[in-house]
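Revision sheet: structure tokens.
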Amino acid sequence: MFVNSIADGAADLAAAWKRRQLAIYLAWSETVARYRRSTLGPIWLVLGTAVGVVGMGFIWSILLQQDMESFIPSITVGLVVWQFISGVVTESPGMFVKNATMLVNIRMPVYLITLQAFGRHLINLAHNLVVVLAVFIIFPQYNSWTSLLALPGLLIVSINLVAIMQLVGILGARFRDLEPLILAFFPILFFLSPVIYRPGQLGAAEAIMTFNPIAHYIRVIRDPMLGVVPSLGSYAIVLALTAVTVLLSLWMTGSRAYRLPYWM
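Predicted:
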């Protein structure tokens, strides 16, 4: 039964992947519609991130007594990655509920809605990378070939996040309390994740970060951009989490996705 459900979930994912151009088009159209009557359009997203980086970088570098040349690049990448991860996870519980009309009236792969929603967050990430590029132009001492290791890290994290979106989305459609629960929990998780600080600054308490998956997601993307090769432990944890979430999302899709129209 478990294997059959995974096979059905994999078939749904394969069908959605064949229609990925439609998901990309819908994600782009939704992004354009969001800024249609705005003068600056998506530049507001870039400006918001830039203001956050400058403000938090200045204030927290003073509070933590850190050199701005090393602190601002670190907090910039950390904040952009955090916005990417938190945006994906916090949207997940209500994702299928918001697309109830499509689920009820159109026969389509369930993963297609997930790919569309994730594509929109990738577009937002691409906009925010403009801020990252600007910071690394101002502080060029971190520019090295090691930065290329951030690409496989981003790929692994992205696969993980797609699986999480699918899994949490189905659970959120069935249990509507999941969305406010995640929204209430994530602000706390921000301070438990190495966004503002680096794990090495925690001293003996650094071991706590081992149990925070987001810490490892941030590490495999941010560390290479700062000229540091991520530890094998972080890669192992991220890969293990990816394998688990992918299997669970495929199983959940194959065994429960057909009930989504009845839960709307």
